Fold this sequence. Notes:
By secondary structure, chain A is of the alpha+beta class.
Amino acid sequence: MSDESLKRVPLHDRIVAAGGRMVPFAGYSMPVQFTSIMEEHKAVREAAGLFDVSHMGQVYAVGPDAVAAVDRLVTNDVSGLVDGKALYTVMCNADGGIVDDLVIYRLSAEELLLCVNAANREADLAHMGAHLSGDVELQDRSDDMIQLAIQGPRAEELLQALTEADLKGLKFFRCQEAHIAGQPGLVARTGYTGEDGFELYLSNDGGAVVFDALTERFPEELTLCGLGCRDTLRLEAGLMLHGQDIGPSTNPYEAGLGWVVKLNKDSDFVGRGALAAIKEAGPARRLRGFVVEGRGVPRPGYPIQIDGEEVGSLTSGGYSPTLEEGIALGYIDSAHADVDSVEIAIRKRSVVARVVKPPFYRRPKT
Amino acid sequence: MKIPEEYRFSKDHEWARDEGDGTVTVGISHHAQDALGDIVFVELPAVGDEVEREQEFGVVESVKTVSDLYAPVSGEVVAINEELEDAPELVNDSPYEGGWIVKIAMSAPGELEELMDAEGYDEFLSGGD
């Protein structure tokens, strides 16, 4: 894919100037790293990292029926949200397959922000449009917004220097409107790294001011991070990547996401019938975590075997900089889902891997 | 990084340095280690293994990706860099010295002359790959 065909995020030139090594991702030119995936990963675990994730999609649902309408689109219970609260959920098709996974922020009784995956934005909008009902309008503001993530144990301390908002009082999966470096936006205590941290939703102009303010004020303390470490961080935290671990041919039960499916909620949401049947029958395969014993780096697509027989394959995998081991996610046939260990075929070798329940890493309690 | 003069390079981004005694030391180029990123594991052949030019003889795993190692010349592996077992990052930090991978006793010394010299490799890189 040539550079010209790739979309650019609003901060593209700043990212390149800061040393971003650009690669194609979800149709965008995005930095895979600035210095080293390993160093950036460690910075987020030990201090703080700054990610420009403006490729992510921001869709607003606005109108008197916003909550009820979105509740019918997703599996989790949106009606239970209060203003300023966020919710992780999946959105399924009529067969129970996962169209996307997303975070929903309730801004008011008549306004929700849906943060969706960049690669799925068009498909999501089509799906939502087809199933939307009531007095509500979907507004795709993805191109008009910058989304920054500040993640790591020092995230609160550093971001607090740029805002009057009480960040200590902002709990996990809560959000509030705030001025950051003088720019109005939404600050949310959410992220995709398994670390404490924040995501900021800002206008394109405001986001540039905030990015400059953060990088100029904290050139040492805040490490610029690319998508490479975003992937290793989320994998350690056992967080799903849509398009890899989950997708339209995956259902939430086999993915271990049954906890975001509320079959008994009031609305008759898309996929409910199919999901009830899958739950009743039990999924045919299960997502599991795998930790390689000894040396070897598991990668997506590698076969999972028991006594030489293939029982599944990996969907995500890589080297864990924190654990210094190879870790992976993958699906294994339900008949074998409770085994303690499997073999993973790594190219010409076969390695033993422990079967574990993700996450692989939990941040220390503070 | 300036490419060392006395090194010869393959199109697979391996280098070979003539030790003058019928053996060459082999590693991957600065360009290759830079493209791979943080290297976390090098799968080495065993001493005594026969390797053939342009055939796989090992694997380099980085955080980002995995890549085969291809022998720049044919011969027998007479030494492996055991330090890489515990310090694979040497390949990143010192691709032309401490990050060497194997030594090969050449079975067809003429193959060495068929590799690119530093200048040729530089041109090869700027030609895009």
